[in-house]
Amino acid sequence: METSVDIQALNEKIYIESAFVETLNEETAKVIVGQNHMIERLMLGLLAGGHVLLEGLPGLAKTLAIKTLSTAVDAKFSRIQFTPDLLPADIIGTMIYNPNKNEFTVRKGPIFANFILADEINRAPAKVQSALLEAMQERQVTIGKTTFKLDEPFLVLATQNPIEQEGTYPLPEAQIDRFMLKVNISYPNKEEERIIMRQNILGGAFEKINAVVKPEDILKARKTVREVYMDEKIEKYIIDIVFATRSPEEYGMPDLKHMISYGGSPRASINLALASKAYAFLKRRGYVIPADVREVCKDILRHRIGLTYEAEAENISQEDIVEKILNEVPVP
């Protein structure tokens, strides 16, 4: 009885504290037509403190979405265009010699912002990708002998083009695992594209984006997200889903055993739990239900499951495997 009272109080608290979500959605909708899935996943990353990898064709508003969101949150935005000749110093900064003062001074790179757009991350060599991924993981950067803490909230949105692989450096599995979500971006529908076309023909007649949320509000919301109630049955459900990617035969799916070369790491369990809580927060609810887990599952797991040659030969994707697991693992 006491628990239900606690949940009710928590529910009311989260309903009040998540009020800014609707305001933020309304503000981004002034510029971004459609792409609700992408905007929602960006918000999940923002609220859960996880980075997002977007995969989609050029021209699908990936850059515009993150820029719009950073304006609405009143945060500092940096765009880094990844190219094969990029150096780590171009991202994190370097030491510059000042002949007048006869000393070296630190020149900070574009990583010192709240929202980082890493455009076409797979175009840069491994050492540049590593410099960015270290900053993502440690939330700090070392230039010379000085270590600088990065400002919070700190969100990296990386994009990659799925069709053009020539002259690219695919992210290694261990590094791609550091992204909380991998989101596939699709084309808009006919009506949405007609609105997009009309807006751009009229000289980009977009409404002005107002700063409706402060970075401090996001940091406060992150603490509240972790307070969202998750029942032991939901925890077990998450563990079962992740373990089914490692040992599918134990969950009545022996046919998947030869399709999966490796399953989700413990990061998959942590991120699935966190994203489920953040999704419940977005829906202005103080507790997680199985539908929340199922909703975010593909975005959390699609880059954490390795396919065998057999699966690739049969055109089986990570989404197909996650779909089968969700259909087979008992829902609490």
What can you tell me about this protein's structure?
The chain has two domains: 2-216, Rossmann fold; 229-328, Helicase, Ruva Protein, domain 3 (Orthogonal Bundle). 48% of the residues lie in helices and 15% in strands. The chain is of the alpha/beta class. It has a five-stranded parallel beta sheet with strand order 2-5-8-1-9. A two-stranded antiparallel sheet has the order 3-4. It has helices at residues 2-17, 19-29, 36-48, 62-72, 88-92, 126-138, 173-176, 190-201, 215-227, 232-246, 266-282, 290-301, 309-313, 318-328; strands at residues 52-55, 77-81, 93-98, 103-108, 115-119, 140-143, 146-149, 155-160, 181-184, 260-262, 306-307. α3 (36-48) crosses α11, α9 (215-227) packs across α11 (266-282) and α11 crosses α12 (290-301).
* Helix-strand makeup class: alpha/beta
Quick one: CATH class of the largest domain?
Alpha Beta
Strand order of the largest sheet: 2-5-8-1-9
Major β-sheet annotation? 5 strands, parallel
Number of structural units classed as domains: 2
Task: Please give the share of residues in helix.
Answer: 40-55%
Instruction: Please tell me the overall pLDDT.
Output: 84
| Beta-strand percentage range | 5-15%
Q: Supply Rg.
A: 21 Å
Number of helices: 14
- The first-to-last residue Cα distance is 21 Å
Shape: globular
Spans of at least 5 consecutive residues whose pLDDT stays below 50 are: none
Q: Kindly identify the CATH topology of the largest domain.
A: Rossmann fold
CATH superfamily of the largest domain: P-loop containing nucleotide triphosphate hydrolases
Number of strands: 11
Order of helices and strands: HHHEHEHEEEHEEEHEHHHEHHEHH
CATH architecture of the largest domain, by name, is 3-Layer(aba) Sandwich
